[in-house]
Design goal:
three-stranded antiparallel β-sheet; 11 strands; 37% strand; globular
Length: 223
Amino acid sequence: MAWHALTGPHAHLSASAGGGAARRYRDEIAPFCGVERLDDRGWEALAELVGPQGVAVFLRGEVEPPPPGWTELLREDATQYVAGDLSEPPSGTPEVVELTAADVPEMVRLAAETEPGPFGPNSHLTGRWFGVRRDGRLVAMAGERMRVDGHGEVSGVCVDPVARGEGLGAVVTLAAAHGIRQRGDRPMLHVRDGNEGAHRLYRRLGFEVRRSVVVAVLRADSP
């Protein structure tokens, strides 16, 4: 997916190597990499891109075991969902606000405390982000991470522990998803297998299973 994002709508957020054979998001955005073909040229370009001991994260339908010169740190199966008939936020839900660059310190703080996945000081550049505040403090957020032609990925869904159990994860997920729909694209998201609570939540909100994918974290060995 990252390849299509970084050669498409997010090309302006990418760094590349090997004449463009490998791409990744720029620093402090996301660690995801894309390679058109995982052949010898693709692996060489990826190694040049991340550098010795650098880490590449793939989100693909399939990731073959890496060749010599790479160490696989993590491999997990996940499910890709696409939006069907999305729910509307229930009446009486807290006000949702669209977040801006001025909110980045709080967004980074909330992500660090809740660990929804990679989120850095420039992650907000990938799309629109939405949040809920309580007494001025950001307690929930979600937004758009990878964007490909026709689709936008809802990601970074997180809720402060003090506000869990109130349905705020659903509220910000729907805000991000409807924001993608307003642009004319179809929302999608990814859930690691085994996270049954998240699977139930997103199905309840109107997301439908599309396919299985793999999350692989690889480290380039020193030459």
